[in-house]
Amino acid sequence: MKHLAFAFTLAAVSVLSFFTACTSLPTASKSRLEVSEEDFGAYLLVYFKDETHSLYFAISSDGYTFTDVNNGNPIFDGKNLAEQKGVRDPFIGRGPDGFYMALTDLHIFAQRSRIRDTQWLHPQEEYGWGNNRALVLMKSKDLINWSVSDYRLDQAFPEEYAEIGCSWAPEIIYDPEKDSMMVYFTLRIKNGKERLYYAHTDKDFTKFIEKPQLIGMKAPEEKTYIDGDITHANGKYYMFLASNGIKLAVSDHLRNGYVYDDKTIVTGEGSCEAPNVWKRIGTDKYVLMYDNFQPMPNEMAFQETTDFKTFTPLGRFNKGVMKTTNFRGAKHGAVIPLTKSEAQQLAAHWKVEKY
């Protein structure tokens, strides 16, 4: 397992201890337990692109028009973050002591890019498409300085997960019962069925403190499902997932009790995956954002709901009310609200004058 700490840069990465990095960071952000919706005044989108397998940030003052902070260039080169020299599926969340990100350590074009000699690290006939075994865990107090842990699940839990076929699309949520950040993600053993697993992390967000376990869900045994995204609203936990379209499972509890509904929420737009739900500040509207990767070119698409039962399509980026100003081709993104001061600090660091 590799620990790194650095600020936003595409230059060489400095290797430091996680503890030193965290104790030297500014404390500009409010914790999840201190901030209220009245404090929020902007949005942050994290995403990646297939062309670079790297990490990007975009900010918005209104939740409709997003501006990339680095003019459509990566803020983190995937080569510096991941064992496979590429990252996918970024997610960002706010915790009790700062911001957390998690990403898939996977490069699906590594052979074509001459990063490795084979298409996948392990034989596809035995371990399936895109096989990988690591997740990238990142933590920050100010959205500028980040610590990084490249976490190999097969090495951490060799008795249970030595034969991982994939570990994809990690997301993060604070678990109040455990007073801990919880990572949940898609996991497959060898070439078996994709399922959603969870595990709680240490305080420094470098590793799991328990072996991953299945999220409890009542779903047909023959179903495969990936890309889980959990939102707590109206006293319920709403978990959107990709399973031949975007589906929904609902529970009264964070880690179990989900009831799967086979009704497809997203239809008529070609292939889609990577659902992410975020709330419009000061309203009762929630935005369902997802990766609409067919028809090409791929782009993020959006629907809106107030009750998690009926959804109003908003179109794709730049083909509806949702806009981008200086980037195209965003994939598998996630959005969180920021306070005005957090957004201003981020914009100042990147010299973004208008967003």
Note down, in words, how this protein is organized.
This protein is mostly beta strands and 355 residues long. The chain has a single domain, classed as Tachylectin-2, Chain A. The chain is 8% helix and 43% strand. It contains 5 helices and 23 strands. A 5-stranded antiparallel beta sheet has the order 1-8-7-6-5. A hairpin with a 2-residue loop joins strand 5 and strand 6. The radius of gyration is 19 Å and the shape is globular.
List keywords for this structure.
355 residues, mainly beta, Tachylectin-2, Chain A, 5-stranded antiparallel beta sheet, 5-stranded mixed beta sheet, 23 strands, globular
Topology:
Blueprint: E1 2-7, H1 18-24, E2 40-49, E3 54-60, E4 65-68, E5 87-95, E6 98-105, H2 124-127, E7 134-140, E8 145-152, H3 153-156, H4 158-161, E9 164-175, E10 180-189, E11 195-200, E12 213-214, E13 217-218, E14 226-233, E15 236-242, E16 246-251, E17 258-261, E18 273-279, E19 286-292, E20 299-305, E21 312-316, E22 323-324, E23 331-339, H5 340-350
Parallel strand pairs: 4-22, 13-17
Antiparallel strand pairs: 1-8, 2-3, 2-23, 3-4, 5-6, 6-7, 7-8, 9-10, 10-11, 11-12, 14-15, 15-16, 16-17, 18-19, 19-20, 20-21
